[in-house]
Amino acid sequence: FADFAAFRSEGGFQRVGPWRSRLEAPAIMRDAQVLGGWLDAQEGVDSRAGIGTQGYCMGGPFTFWTAAAVPSRVRAAASFHGGGLVREGEASPHALVDETNASFLVAVAQDDHEESPETTETLREVFAHSSNRGEVEVYPADHGWTVPDSPAYDRQAAERAWARLLALYDRALG
Contact 94/85 with Cβ under 8 angstroms? Predict the structure, then answer.
């Protein structure tokens, strides 16, 4: 898709649905382990340094799963308007926080929070009882606010989220 408008007008949600159904915890965690090993084998990569990961919308859970799959390497994980961070089952992203060595940034869209405030509260509770640092904040913007060609794009909120991401990476990876 050329941009988000084309994604919406050309049936993007329907077309990617079958692909998305295959991207659950086992697949993402397996890929993260393989990718981590590949990175470490590359000349010029400091395998003692931390790795950071960030995900948007359906990519939000991927960051938690990646951090759990490669806990010795992933030290920072950020989710922006991520969906499915709290769900049933032991592979729920929120249930894996203590299996990581990462610091987290969870930037929640206001409309996502309004739809499911219990998700935000569950995440806050998880980090309150974890040895891993986790920042959970509801942003005054709607789902998709960080994507420049999204109709929900909010420059001010996106810049704040970007600054928080850079601070996380500086603190956790620097």
Answer: yes
Find out whether 95 and 67 touch, Cβ atoms under 8 Å.
no
Q: pTM, whole model, 2 decimals?
A: 0.93
Q: Name residues whose C-beta falls within 8 Å of residue 79's C-beta, 6 or more positions apart in sequence.
A: 54, 55, 56, 59, 60, 61, 63, 64, 85, 104, 105, 106, 107
- Lay out the sheet containing 74-80: strands in order across: 51-56, 74-80, 103-109, 134-139
Structure confidence by residue, pLDDT tens digits, 122-156: 999 999 999 999 999 999 999 999 999 899 999 99
Q: Tell me how far apart the terminal alpha carbons of the chain are, to the nearest angstrom.
A: 35
